[in-house]
Amino acid sequence: MKTEDFILSLFEKAKQAGLEEYEVYCSIGKSFFTDVNNGEPDKYTVNDFTGISFRAKKDGRIGYCSTTAKSPETADFLCLLREQTERMSQMTKTLLEMSELRTVPCTDQIEIAPMVEEIFADLSPLADKNGIALEFCGNGVMTGSDTLT
Predict the structure, then answer these.
(1) Cα–Cα distance, 81 to 86 (Å, whole number)
(2) φ, ψ of residue 15 in degrees (nearest 5)
(3) Phi/psi of residue 98, each to 5°?
(4) In the sheet where 40-58 sits, what is the strand order?
(5) Could you tell me if 68 and 28 are in contact, meaning their C-beta atoms sit under 8 angstroms apart?
(6) First and final CA of the chain: distance in angstroms?
(7) CB–CB of 112/139 below 8 Å?
(8) What does the pLDDT read at residue 79?
(9) Phi and psi angles of residue 148, each rounded to the nearest 5 degrees, phi first
(10) What's the DSSP call for residue 122?
(11) Residue among 15, 4, 88 nearest 57 (CA)
């Protein structure tokens, strides 16, 4: 795939992904290596290389990645990588918020049975499919924070 076509494809995918701003930095070059044996050229290698860096902004956050591969799949992958990075950022934010909840007083008496019934309702189709019977008895109580449950 030509570099220009790859960049256009990447920009189109970035636009479809809803990115606010995006840019590509492209580095193109050649290298030449030679081995000399007894004062004579023995073998040589000529390489062309292209490096592409992609930076994008969404919701005020910036993501960055780079590659030397130029294929439609790579353009998809770069946008997917940005999406996964955004998900990881959101998960980190959630974990930080949860860590702040440790300061919440944990003195509420919480009945466990309603939570178990809800879990069983979610699991029952899978349990039935696999021939597993789900049952519980009693009504346990735990001390904690009703806000966190």
Answers:
(1) 9
(2) -65, -45
(3) -65, -35
(4) 21-37, 40-58, 61-67
(5) no
(6) 52
(7) yes
(8) 67
(9) -85, -15
(10) H
(11) 15
What's the DSSP call for residue 19?
Answer: -
Element holding 128 (H helix, E strand): helix 113-129
Angle, helices 3-16 vs 72-100, to 10°: value is: 40
| Residue 25 to residue 54: CA distance in whole angstroms | 7
- Chain centre to alpha carbon of residue 129: 32
pLDDT of residue 31: 83
Q: Could you tell me the two tokens for 60?
A: 């005020």
Q: Both tokens of residue 19?
A: 């990115």
pLDDT reported for residue 54? 83
Secondary structure (DSSP) of 55-103: EEEETTEEEEEEES--SHHHHHHHHHHHHHHHHHHHHHHHHHHHHHGGG
Token pair, residue 103, equals 């300061």
- What's the residue count for the chain? 149
Q: Average pLDDT by consecutive 10-residue portion of the chain (149 residues)?
A: 81 81 85 85 82 81 76 70 72 75 71 82 81 76 68
